Amino acid sequence: MSRKLYDLIVSRQHHTYRRDHPELESLAEEFHKEGLAPIERMTRRFELLTSLETPVLLPEEKICMMRTVKQIPDCFTEEEWADIRSRHFIHELGYMSNLSPNYANTIRVGLLARYGEADEYGKRMIDAILSLTDRYRAEAERMGKQELAAVLTRVPRYGATSFYEALQFFRILHYFLWLEGDYHNTTGRFDQYMFPYLKADMDKGLYTRETALAMVEDFFLSFNKDSDLYVGVQQGDNGQSMVLGGRTADGSDGFNLLSELCLIASRNLLMIDPKINLRVSKDTPLEVFELGSELTRAGLGFPQYSNDDVVIEGLIKLGYAPEDACNYVVAACWEFIVPAVGADIANIGALSFPRVIDTCLHRDLAHSATYGDFMEAVRAEIRAECDRICGGIQNLWFVPSPLMNLLIDGGIYNGAKYNNFGIHGSGVATAADSLAAIEKYVYNEKSVTPAALIEAVDSDFEKHADLLPLLRYEAPKMGNNDDAADSKAVDLLDTFADALQGRTNCRGGIYRAGTGTAMYYLWHAAEIGASPDGRRRGEPFGTNFSPSLFANVQGPISVIKSFTKPHMERTINGGPLTLEFASSMFDSADSIHKVATLVKAFVELGGHQLQLNAVNTETLKAAQADPDRYRQLVVRIWGWSAYFVELDREYQDHVLRRQQYRV
Known about the structure:
Layout (H helix, E strand, L loop, with lengths): L2 H8 L16 H8 L3 H15 L25 H10 L15 H7 L1 H5 L4 H23 L3 H9 L8 H18 L9 H14 L5 H14 L18 E5 L11 H13 L5 E6 L5 H12 L6 E4 H10 L4 H4 L3 E2 L5 E2 L7 E8 H11 L7 H21 L10 H6 L13 E6 L1 H17 L5 H9 L8 H8 L8 H18 L10 E3 L6 H7 L29 H8 L13 E6 L8 H14 L4 E7 L1 H9 L8 E3 L4 E3 L5 H9 L6
Parallel strand pairs: 1-2, 2-3, 6-7, 7-8, 9-10
Antiparallel strand pairs: 3-10, 4-5, 11-12
Helix pairs in contact: 3-7, 7-8, 9-10, 10-12, 11-12, 12-13, 13-25, 16-17, 16-19, 17-22, 19-22
């Protein structure tokens, strides 16, 4: 790795090459006046942006392409968007996102070979890509960078013939997808389609292990040049996720030398991109978990682990072909998608379990003679919520994206082979703990009346204040391997899966239940007041699939046992158990082995997805007080990692309030 290049990117000196372009400010209005069709707008904007880009080659840079145009203007005016939204369901920004294109095919054959398959807009996209790439090649020649110039002479026109060419080709495709306006662009199973190039070069003696690692590190730096310009809820939420390892089509383990080098490169660089996801199974050697735990110790918040034993089975049960299920990757955060042939929208909606409980608490508790009666009301409300969510997703429309269309097998405009919709399920622990408290105190012990509980919750425990410590600290809680609470989560998630099963969405696909929250651990929590588990008004839910922030839990082993009890193959949209570890725990010599053993136990117990964070509370507080001293401090937020000081305060505070474990 070039230390000079690394320091330049970390210090953001390369941002000085960025320029404002006033001519872009009125682009949507100009398109509107001309009455251009959406696909023509996308193509013209792309052609304009590529023409405005200035080729910049940074010192000692091997993998080129960097944004100099600061902003990508919208293709539509606000009035046009209002009209579109009045006639269509628009997901997020309306542009293509959270997809895993078929990089491998185009890297193998080259853009000229794809030219004949492209429509007229795809052809124009290819022409624009080649034009800017040629200008980069000319700049490389001018600066005497002959090796890079030779690579750009071949790619992206022709298929890659070396590891270097393949890496540069990927960067070109990834760069131009962002420039097209697509976002949360993932890298897919990077080690599977890239390793053959590395192996061939190593067999020729072109790389040693050390020089191959240096090349991977330089390649990883390219992900961090422009990531602050990418779309996301917060800086870092950019979707540059990379999947390593996992079962291959013949059933063998796909973890290879490149997988290992990627893990080491991440550990060495300590940067938030690319975000590593490690596919594992009960057969994965402990050494792989130990490599992953090295990244946890480094404080990166990844790798995120996905359990092939559960995920593949779950996807097959949902109707994915075995060969596609076996090839799964994750979307921007954690949702399971299929590369090359999938157009799933894995985060199209979210159900709030605590809001369901809140509704039933006020509407049904006083009229439910038994806990079974109350639980039946909860199940009915979950079904009603799913009716509402699914019923509101009709006539879906996306801005057409010619480049993404070219990189998805069979095209993307009318969907693809898979067109399934994923629904998050937020606040599972809050809801399960609330049900456990209701069952225990209202129905079993009869020590709390429905009226008293409702009044306490509605007053944020100012009335019946004695109930607050009882519900908050003494009632059963998920995370303690206590069936009194854990069984409620099983019931809730099974009901969620049942409520979505058999539904067909507006694209002919199905709906998938999941255990992720994304930002809903804040948003959904703000929609309701206090809850029967002792949660106060304004307190967030636990992130993703994890215990409540205030729950007294015995430790990570009990948490894992609690959160592996549900039938995770039924809620396989994705959503990891999230555990925070005190960074001081890693001071001991055997810490890596202990954490690796814990992760392996999670997999063997049937957990579907896991992410770990190593945090130091005092360091985080110091970073809040003096951000400039902690610019490279990384934390895990939900399905992505970020630089702590660049987060909004509410996200920083949530990290500070999470449980911290030791093993």
